[in-house]
Structures are given as C-alpha cells and as structure tokens.
Specification:
By secondary structure, the chain is α/β, with parallel strands linked by helices. It contains 10 helices and 12 strands. It has helices spanning 34-47, 62-71, 92-106, 124-136, 150-159, 183-190, 213-223, 227-236, 250-257, 266-275, and strands at 3-6, 10-13, 17-18, 24-25, 28-29, 51-53, 80-85, 110-115, 140-146, 165-171, 193-197, 241-243. The strands form 3 sheets. Strands 3-6-7-8-9-10-11-12 form an 8-stranded parallel beta sheet. Strand 4 and strand 5 (28-29) form a beta hairpin. Helix 3 (92-106) packs across helix 4 (124-136) and helix 7 (213-223) packs across helix 8. The longest helix is centred in the middle third of the chain and has 15 residues, at 92-106. It binds NADP nicotinamide-adenine-dinucleotide phosphate. NADP nicotinamide-adenine-dinucleotide phosphate (NAP) binds at residues 18-20, 53, 116, 146-147, 169, 197-203, 206, 228, 244-249, 252, 255-256.
C-alpha cells in the first residue's frame, strides 16, 4: 500500500475500499449476506486493502457490523477505518451517542470520523466540540467532514480548538472536478486530506458509451493498465487526494489495487483532463 501524510500527522492509505451498499442501503439493514460480505472484506485485507470507508447510515449500521466482524484477527494498527455521523445526529449529545454505537458495531475505535453532510440545524462548532470529546475519550483518532465546500470547510476549521479538522470526503473523479476550483487549493494550502468518493463515477467512467472513454482507454493501453486503474491513478496523482473505490467483485478489488506503484505522466494527465473538462 502507498500512503500520504496530512496535517496532524494523519497517515492515510491512498486507496481504500468504499462500502456503500455492503450490508444494505439508506438506513436499511440487509445482514442476510453478512457471512459472504465478511469473507469479502477479509479477502480485501489479504489482497492489500488497509482502509475501509463506512457510515452509520450504510445499511443502518450493518456495513459497520460487517467491517467489525471482518477485521477481527487482523493487526488493528495496520488498518484505517473511516466512519461518518449522519447530519440529523450532529448535535453534541447525538454525535456522542452515534459514535458510541458505531464503535460498538465495529468493535474498535474509528481512525477518522466525519460529519457525513453539513447540518442545516446544528452549528458546526457544536459538532466539532463533540468530535474533540470523542478524541479525548479515545473513540476516534481524527475528525473531519464530508460534502463540505471550501467556505464550509473553513468554518469547520476555525471552529476546531483542541484538534484539527484533517479531511473532507467529497465527490471527485475525472468527470466531476468541481472541487478543483476552490476546495482543492484550500486543502493543499492547509494540508487537508481530500477523500475522493465515487472515484469511478459510480462506474459510469468505465462505460464504453461515455464520450470520453476512448481517451481513457488509449492512455490505459499506453501504460499497459486498465481504464479503471488509470482513472484511479489520475486521482491519487492529484495533490492531497486519496480514493475509495467501491467494489463488490473480487476481480475489481484486485484490478483497483493495480492503480498503485506507478504514476501517469503530467502530459497524459493533461490529455485526460482535456477529454473531461470541468463542468
Ligand atoms: P465508485 O466507487 O465510483 O463506483 C463503484 C462502481 O464501480 C460499482 O458498481 C463497482 O462494481 C464498479 N467498479 C469498481 N471497480 C471497477 C473496475 N475495476 N471495473 C469496472 N467496474 C468497477 O462509486 P461509489 O460507490 O459511489 O463511491 C465509492 C465509495 O465512496 C462508496 O462506496 C462510499 O464508501 C463512498 N461514498 C461516500 C459518499 C459521501 O457522501 N461521503 C457518497 C457516495 C459514496 P462492482 O460493485 O460490481 O465491483
């Protein structure tokens, strides 16, 4: 695995596994395939995955339960667990309650705990206070946000007192580069981790009917890699960026790790970016 280091000495694997849909959907548990999913996550660890992205909302906690069962027996120090609190639980007491429940399901502390979306009702300073308490209590190691634009991220950063906001998990892929305008420059300046979700555009980047696919494919051929590996390599070549592709097939798990250990040239990055202009 390759790692990047951010503020507060946060060290993160550059590729992690997204788990949306593993164990159910939007607040809807589906633990019927639990044993199968546990084996799948264990296989991911054997293949080299070290970071798992989950949330209390994913399958209403079932995703966290699966990850917790899967990681037991592996060296905890080698793993990095990201989880998130839903914005309706953003008040001080609710954050503590949600985090305790997540830690209970995972059976271990959370490395990075994020507010899943900005809250309309609770000031970010209140949520940050709860995150700081959780760090003090050893339930989480680092705190961050998700789906925050540059302005909201700055607000969150200035609300932090005892610890720093270290990460923002946002949608980022070749076809969706909105964050490059304001958020990325801020993240670089402040050395904050950008965790790129939907890094394969939920799979649409790899659809041959996508008008820009031919460019992705021709660059992939040039490097002897696959289009998915190029799309992920392009992301991890970006400053401050790590990616969390989701895969539910073992061949995809393996293929996506092939984004590691090499880098696309600056020229080819530019060619790709011209094929996918910022919308
Ligand atoms: P994604 O990772 O861009 O795409 C996942 C899709 O791509 C799946 O259908 C998967 O298929 C397919 N795929 C993966 N590797 C492939 C490969 N090598 N070749 C062909 N197809 C491949 O989309 P995502 O699930 O939206 O995003 C990833 C993770 O980000 C989520 O799982 C979640 O953890 C996180 N996320 C966070 C937020 C947030 O608000 N913070 C929002 C959305 C997502 P198979 O399943 O068949 O392998």
């Amino acid at each position: 695995m390759e790692y990047k280091t951010f503020r507060s000495d946060l060290k993160m694997p550059v590729i992690g596994l997204g788990t949306w849909g593993i164990g159910g959907g939007y607040w809807t548990p589906d633990c019927s395939r639990k044993a199968e999913w546990v084996a799948f996550i264990r296989r991911a660890i054997e293949l080299g995955y070290r970071m798992f992205d989950t949330a209390e909302m994913y399958g209403g906690g079932c995703s966290e339960e699966i990850i917790g069962a899967a990681i037991s027996g592996f060296s905890r120090d080698d793993l990095f667990i990201v989880s998130k609190v839903w914005p309706t639980h953003a008040s001080f007491d609710d954050v503590l309650r949600s985090a305790r429940a997540s830690v209970g399901r995972l059976g271990t502390f959370i490395d990075l705990y994020l507010l899943h979306w900005p809250s309309r009702d609770v000031p970010i300073a209140e949520t940050i206070r709860a995150f700081e308490r959780l760090i003090d209590d050893g339930l989480i190691r680092f705190m961050g946000v998700s789906n925050f634009d540059a302005k909201l991220l700055m607000e969150a950063m200035s609300a932090a007192r005892k610890y720093e906001v270290v990460a923002d998990e946002v949608k980022y892929n070749l076809a969706d580069r909105f964050i490059e305008r304001d958020l990325m420059p801020l993240a670089v300046k402040e050395n904050i981790a950008i965790i790129a979700y939907s890094p394969l555009g939920t799979g649409t980047l790899l659809n041959p009917s996508n008008p820009s696919y031919s460019v992705l494919r021709s660059i992939a051929e040039k490097y002897g890699k696959t289009p998915a590996q190029v799309a992920l390599n392009w992301l991890i070549s970006k400053p401050n960026t790590v990616a969390i592709p989701k895969a539910t097939r073992e061949e995809h798990l393996k293929e996506n790790l092939g984004a590691l250990g090499w880098r696309i040239s600056q020229e080819d990055q530019k060619q790709l970016e011209q094929a996918y202009p910022i919308k």
